[in-house]
Amino acid sequence: MLQVAPSAYRRHAARQRNPDLRSARAKRDEALEPQIQRVWEANLKVYGADKVWKQMNRENIPVARCTVERLMRRLRLQGARRGKAVRTTIPDHSAPCPLDLVNRQFKADRPDQLWVSDFTYVSTWRGWLYVAFVVDVFARHIVGWRVSQSMNTDFVLDALEQALYARQPTGSESLIHHSDRGRSMSRCAKRKAWPKPAWKRLSAARATATITRWQRPLDFPQSREHPGASF
């Protein structure tokens, strides 16, 4: 049950019965919303808050930019954005996935106990670049990384292989390698995707592959904090 003060309820009911009792801001918002909608639709629905605000001022409708932005958000209007949206987590439904052994408990008591892998994208003048990295949760340090011009499995495997070569975890203590359900990341858990030397090192390190649950696409706080700060 929603707790509402009796005075607040009576004030709201009075404003519903008599709109003239509303605040000056509410009245002005009601008058500006049709104007913002008109300008946005008249310009092929591509104008953002800046251009809608400038156009309204050119038409002698004085309004602040923050007001236009707030009302466009309320009306769910947004301008066109340049560039194509990049999607990095593309699930592979055909690939068998290991269980989620981490369960969002990104804690480690020692180095090389829990690694998380992910990759992101960077816009450059020559196009998109993809950066795969492996983070040691205990040290919050990137232990392996690779850059590629395409989203393929090879550069993700190279990042993990570099981490294994650099850290050389021993088989005396187990290592958990955690990733998301993206196509490139989930194939890291398949033995056939690995070159034999890399798989031997993975086996020697007693590494266990684990993948986040389907309902948790953003499940890597350590890998998304500052991926470029700890090389």
Automatic annotation (TrEMBL):
Transmembrane portions of the chain: none
Region (Disordered), start-end ranges: 1-29
Bias (Basic and acidic residues): 17-29
MF-aspect GO terms: nucleic acid binding
InterPro entries tied to this protein: HTH-like_dom, Integrase_cat-core, RNaseH-like_sf, RNaseH_sf, Transpos_IS3, Transposase_IS3/IS150/IS904
Pfam families found in the cross-reference section: HTH_21 (PF13276), rve (PF00665)
Gene Ontology BP terms: DNA integration
Domain spans labelled Integrase catalytic: 107-231
Name of this protein: Transposase InsO family protein
